[in-house]
Amino acid sequence: MTTETAKTRAVADADQSVPAPVDVPPAGEEINLDASENYFNRELSQLQFNYRVLKQAMDPTHPLINRLIFCCIFSSNMDEFFEIRVAGLRQQMKYGRETIGADGMLPEQALAEISRVAHEYINEQYDILNNVLIPEMERENIHFVRRREWTPEQAEWVRNYFEEEILPVVSPIGLDPSHPFPRLVNKSLNFIVELDGKDAFGRETGMAIVPAPRSLPRLVRLPDDVCGEGDNLVFLSSMIHAHADELFPGMEVKGCYQFRLTRNADLELEDDLEDLASALRGELLSRRFGDGVRLEVADNCPQEMMEFLLTEFGLTERDLYQVHGPVNLTRLMAVNGLVDRPDLTYSGFSPSIPKQIRSRDSMFDAIRKRPILLLHPYENFSPVVDLLRQAAKDPHVLAIRQTLYRTGADSEIVEALADAARRGKEVTAVIELRARFSEAENLELASRLQEAGVIVVYGVVGYKTHAKMILIVRREEGRLRRYVHLGTGNYHAGNARLYTDYSFMTCDESIGDDVNKLFQQLTGMGKALKIKKLFHAPFTLHTRLLALIEREAEFGENGRIILKFNALTETQLIKALYRASQAGVQIDLIIRGICCLRPQVPGLSDNIRVRSIIGRFLEHTRVYYFGNNGKTEVYCSSADGMERNLLSRVETAFPIEDPSLVARVKEDLDTYLADNCQSWVLQSDGSYLQNQPAEGEERLASQLVLLDRLTGKT
């Protein structure tokens, strides 16, 4: 099944946020690769990815509770989009540092278009929630019980819950000259309350703010003894609404309206810091109270109160989102833990372990026989943990070095590193403290490892260490042998169950030497060392990737490129792909999220096809495939096709050279390219069309095919 033969369907309203079609130059006239119409806007492309996630909530092939979770993931994605991307554009304007991307759009133009599109998408989200998901859950006997529907028994239970669990921890704040508007935490649930009357001190303020305690669940299950059949859930916001008058005794509550403020959550650290960890601890506090970038309010909130909040936060009507439902939909993910309905969630599966590993007690023996390539989550992450555990206990292992970007302070990998250090081995951890939204966890991780005797370094200031590397030095038969793990994803067991990622384990001498040199660069100082097989950013990855694309262009119509990224934004890379397409190279790009390249434009990108795979698992593998005129070259990488990955981070791309593993990666890529139901095809006008099987054609969902192929594999 190819993109050309698949039936596609248009996404409703998806083409409203895209640029106009490209004007094709007359025959023989050279196309200007720098022209702004040849590039999509980065932010709008990110919004479209979020929308594709939202559309999963409407897909009946997903279980119902997982469709609700997709709706919540959309909210989470939008939160981060406003916290980082919208905040960044606003900062450019605030400080007069406007920059124009390849698409030619000014920050002010981008913000206006973002507001228009985001309002459409968020309105559609609440429409899906209220008119599709909640009614379907009602039919499955899962009820979100509204205040007007409470029985006397339920109302009494709620009153007791409010008095015992909520009232003791809530802190209402009246607004008057001695009580200025409080500093509200980023993304916290709050209520603005309209009051009438005077308090005990004779004050007559008219308004108050009630921050919902962050320690309380936003969704509570009603006990069965006050309900009929099924699962009955009530919102914390409903409980506070119902009993707001108890927070202001003797006064009349004329209205109570929920709202939530999203703030700038990006961290800004100088490059000349003396102590990165100390500076980061200080910045983490400011993240909770950055400048406001978005205000969400209940749609029944009076206009004057909305205007009051906008003024208080320095926002405009463009930044206001009136929603018909809870303002913090991300918290609805709790449904999965409150409701025991396995029939409404994805069925479980047991990730497989290849026979090469199962047949041997020692991971070192298995790796020496042949390099190992695992595709998570279909194949188990446990061999990576086992490799470290065995290394920690093995008396022949002398040293372990590892990069850590996101892992979790309580992970088995961290415990293995700590155990190795306590056993007297030389253990070095390169921890990236600036992994976004994992900074606090990584600071804790660093402290824990240091207490165990691990040498902890924080990489290179100004260059995030995003590479995924483990190096184990072992004495064997009178010589030292290096064992290496390289991956496309983080050393996080939880992510390995949700993200698709490759893990590669080898004892190839050249790769081992390369990884050793990379660790030397990260932990020590000196000139860049010559690397044999790996490509590494910020030094060689960008130039080598461009060179490989240009080599395929020399093969013309015999050239073949398949690139799998999470995002593609880097203009030199896009231009190289345009030139290769013009030379006749067939190019398939599998790009989950942002894509600034405009495909299928006559004379520019006729031979480039772009698809996005959205499904149960988050596509995270990065693969570079080059036909090389019959001498195929395949690389897996930690790096996407973005400026930050290729030019300002520490990244690696590693070759897959074993013929059977090369064939296996190609088979995986072909599976993605054959997908006719979970794939969305990018059009030349910027819209995405979802593939559908042709009449009489069998559905082929790539993730389900890989799940069937690899789970239980022998």
From TrEMBL:
One of its GO terms (molecular function) is polyphosphate kinase activity. Its EC number is 2.7.4.1. Mg(2+) binds at R406, R436. The keyword RNA-binding does not apply. An intermediate of this reaction is the autophosphorylated ppk in which a phosphate is covalently linked to a histidine residue through a N-P bond. The keyword Metal-binding applies. Residues 362-526, 534-703 form the Polyphosphate kinase C-terminal domain. Its cofactor is Mg(2+). PANTHER family: POLYPHOSPHATE KINASE. This is Polyphosphate kinase. It comes from Marinobacter koreensis.
